[in-house]
Design brief:
Length: 340
């Protein structure tokens, strides 16, 4: 009797191991697809393990997303809300709005999607205006501030002043990455990387069966995005990652550099020694928003905030007194760092 039990146990064990081996071989045999294209004025690259190519579905979802949150599309949800049309916003807009309000409160307004009129005035928005003076900035600050907007009980946007406008440029790409990642997950895909303009979500393993390797560029002034020299490389999976910096979107006027990061509280482009902020979080929308907030805060306050929030990890690249690039890593970020 005992020998029979042992034989049965051995048989079951071999069956389980054989099943695992077959599934593993099947998983390894599934090819990786790589889709590239243009969206939101930037490039995307999506790599995923699947027998079926999903580029058509991916681009259809991106276009649907664009019709909600692109301020350059006059018929989009965000454009209609900026024009004070009486509409109930779609799920994309509502999700971005709610998460943005949460992060605005957490960061004391360093992140704020009502910054649109200021961004437009400084030449970094969806409308071009005259170069602002102090009076104009003061006037625009009267219609800036996350605490001046809300969602009503029936789901509509309520503004204290109809001149308030939204720009989700500091969070929309990150959320779009999350949306495509969710699409892949619903398809049962376990191994993938979604990259839209440098905002990334990775899950599972890469085609080499290792963790995904994501580079952080050296923050060298490069308005044409020609320089691709890396400061460091991170090994990550099952996370969202975003980088914000002032080394690509900027201009000079009267010998002074003006970069695209606007402090919503002062109304002026920031002037800090922090050159780029990279954040790893559970989702890319949050990582995107926090990275922007850190660029507004400056190095010292960004370090304090990141260290006090263990649910995020951060890497800050800054210039020291001699102009040399230095890197600050939160304790949680250190485990991701490999070599350039």
């Amino acid at each position: 009797m005992e020998k029979k039990v042992q034989r049965n146990f051995l048989w079951i064990a071999l069956l389980v191991l054989g099943t695992i081996w077959i599934l593993a071989r099947h998983n390894q045999s599934i090819p990786y697809q790589t889709d590239n294209g243009l969206i939101f004025g930037t490039v995307y690259k999506i790599t995923y393990q699947s027998d079926t190519n999903l580029k058509g579905e991916i681009e259809a979802e991106l276009k649907r997303f664009n019709s909600s949150l692109s301020p350059f599309d006059g018929t989009s949800t965000i454009s209609r809300i900026n024009l004070n049309e009486d509409i109930v916003p779609d799920t994309f807009f509502v999700n971005v709005f709610r998460r943005s309000m949460e992060i605005s409160k957490e960061t004391d307004g360093a992140f704020d999607i009502t910054v649109a009129p200021l961004a437009n005035a400084w030449g970094f928005g969806f409308k071009q205006g005259d170069f602002p003076d102090s009076t104009m900035i003061s006037n625009l600050l009267e219609i800036t501030g996350y605490e001046k907007v809300a969602l009503s009980a029936d789901g509509k946007v309520v503004k204290e002043d109809p001149r308030i406008m939204f720009s989700c440029s500091a969070v929309a790409k990150g959320y779009a990455v999350d949306v495509i990642a969710q699409l892949l997950e619903k398809k049962g895909i376990q191994n993938f990387m979604v990259d839209i303009g440098g905002e990334v979500v990775v899950h599972g393993k890469n085609p080499k069966d290792t963790l995904w390797h994501i580079g952080i560029n050296k923050p060298i002034d490069d308005s044409l995005s020609v320089n691709q020299e890396l400061q460091t490389v991170l090994q990550i999976t099952d996370a969202g990652m975003a980088t914000s910096g002032n080394y690509r979107n900027y201009y000079y006027k009267d010998g002074k550099k003006y970069a695209h990061t606007i402090d919503p509280r002062t109304g002026y482009p920031v002037q800090h020694n922090i050159l780029s902020a990279t954040v790893i979080a559970k989702d890319c929308m949050s990582a995107d928003a926090y990275a922007t907030a850190f660029m507004v805060m400056g190095l010292e306050k960004a370090e304090q905030f990141a260290d006090a929030h263990p649910d995020i990890d951060a890497c800050f690249i800054y210039s020291d007194e001699t102009g040399k690039l230095q890197m600050y890593l939160t304790k949680g970020m250190e485990k991701y760092v490999t070599t350039p």
